[in-house]
C-alpha cells in the first residue's frame, strides 16, 4: 500500500523504561510516518506520558532506541529537536510575559524568519489576536491552550507532539482546536504524535491508534479497525473495555 512507502519520521525500537522496580514501558515498537497522526491511548499509568517523554528526549530508555528522521535521538538531539515541537495542556508558558512577548522569545530561540509576521499569522489562525497584549497568566484554559499551539507551530515543525491539547476546554473551543490541528496537518503534511483522553479528538484527528495497557501495546489500527475488533460502537467503549479488562495484542 502507498501508506507503507511513506518515510518513517519517528520510530521507537524495542523501548523499555523502568523506574526502580516499576516497568512503565515494556518492549514497545511503534512508528509515525510522514503526514500521519498517531494517537497513543490508554488509562492513567498506561505509559503514554513516558512514551511521549522518550520521544522528546526528556527520558532515556532503559532499553531500545528512539530514531527521528532516520537518526538516533540520543546522539543528534539538537539537530532533531529543531525539526520538532511540543504542546501540552499541562505545560504553562511564563506567566509574567505578555502573549506576544512569549511568542517573540520562542521565535527567537527557534530562529524564525520574519517572526512578527509569523506570530501575527498564528494568532489570527487560532482566533486570539485580541489577546496579543494580555498578560499570559491571566488567560483562560482555552486561551492558554491556543497560545501553546501557536508556540508549537512557530518553527513550522515536521513532527508535532501533542499531549492532551484539548484538556479542560469547553466543547466549542475543543472543536475549533481540533479543526485547526487537522487543517494545519493536512496543509503541511505534518506528522503528529497525539495523546488524549477525549475520544472525540481521536475519532476526528487520528489516522491510527496505539492502545497501551500497563506499558504494553494491546491493540493497534485505524479507529474503524479498533472498533470492529472489539465489536464496540465507539472508541470510548473500547477505551473502557481495555482500561478495565486489558487485552493481549494478537500476534
Annotation keywords:
globular; 9 helices; Rossmann fold; single chain; 251 residues; 25% strand; alpha/beta; 4-stranded antiparallel β-sheet
Question: Could you please describe the fold and organization of this structure?
Answer:
- This protein is an alpha/beta fold and 251 residues long.
- It has a domain at 1-83 and 193-251: Rossmann fold, CATH 3.40.50.300.
- It has helices at 48-56, 77-81, 99-109, 115-125, 141-153, 171-188, 199-205, 223-230, 235-245, and strands spanning 8-19, 22-33, 37-41, 63-68, 71-72, 84-88, 159-163, 191-195, 208-213, 216-221.
- Strand 4 and strand 5 form a beta hairpin.
- The mean pLDDT is 90.
Radius of gyration in whole Å, from Cα? 18 Å
Percent of residues in helices: 25-40%
Gross CATH architecture of the domain at 1-83 and 193-251: 3-Layer(aba) Sandwich
Average pLDDT for all residues: 90
CATH superfamily of the domain at 1-83 and 193-251: P-loop containing nucleotide triphosphate hydrolases
CATH class of the domain at 1-83 and 193-251: Alpha Beta
Shape by Cα distribution: globular
Question: Within the largest sheet, what's the order of strands?
Answer: 6-7-8-3-9-10
- Compressed to H and E, one letter per element, the order equals EEEHEEHEHHHEHEHEEHH
Number of strands: 10
Main beta sheet, described?
6 strands, mixed
Could you list the spans in which at least 5 consecutive residues all have pLDDT below 50?
Answer: none
Amino acid at each position: 500500500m502507498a501508506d507503507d512507502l511513506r518515510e518513517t519520521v519517528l520510530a521507537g525500537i524495542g523501548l523499555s523504561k523502568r523506574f526502580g522496580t516499576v516497568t512503565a514501558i515494556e518492549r514497545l515498537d511503534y512508528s509515525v510516518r510522514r503526514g500521519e497522526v498517531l494517537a497513543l491511548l490508554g488509562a492513567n499509568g498506561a505509559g503514554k506520558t513516558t512514551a511521549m517523554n522518550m520521544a522528546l528526549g526528556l527520558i532515556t530508555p532503559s532499553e531500545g532506541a528512539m530514531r527521528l528522521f532516520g537518526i538516533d535521538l540520543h546522539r543528534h538531539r539538537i539537530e532533531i529537536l529543531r525539526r520538532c515541537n511540543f504542546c501540552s495542556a499541562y505545560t504553562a508558558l511564563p506567566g509574567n510575559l505578555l502573549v506576544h512577548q512569549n511568542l517573540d522569545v520562542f521565535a527567537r530561540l527557534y530562529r524564525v524568519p520574519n517572526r512578527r509576521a509569523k506570530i501575527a499569522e498564528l494568532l489570527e489562525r487560532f482566533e486570539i489576536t485580541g489577546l496579543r497584549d494580555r498578560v499570559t497568566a491571566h488567560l483562560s484554559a482555552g486561551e492558554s491552550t491556543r497560545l501553546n499551539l501557536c508556540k508549537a507551530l512557530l518553527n513550522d515543525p515536521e513532527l508535532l507532539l501533542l499531549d492532551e491539547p484539548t484538556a479542560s476546554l469547553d466543547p466549542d473551543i475543543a472543536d475549533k482546536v481540533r479543526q485547526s490541528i487537522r487543517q494545519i496537518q493536512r496543509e503541511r503534511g505534518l506528522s503528529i504524535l497525539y495523546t488524549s483522553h477525549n475520544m472525540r479528538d481521536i475519532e476526528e484527528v487520528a489516522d491510527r491508534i496505539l492502545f497501551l495497557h500497563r506499558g504494553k501495546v494491546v491493540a493497534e489500527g485505524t479507529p474503524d479497525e479498533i472498533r470492529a475488533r472489539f465489536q464496540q460502537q465507539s472508541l470510548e467503549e473500547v477505551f473502557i473495555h481495555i482500561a478495565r479488562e486489558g487485552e493481549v495484542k494478537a500476534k
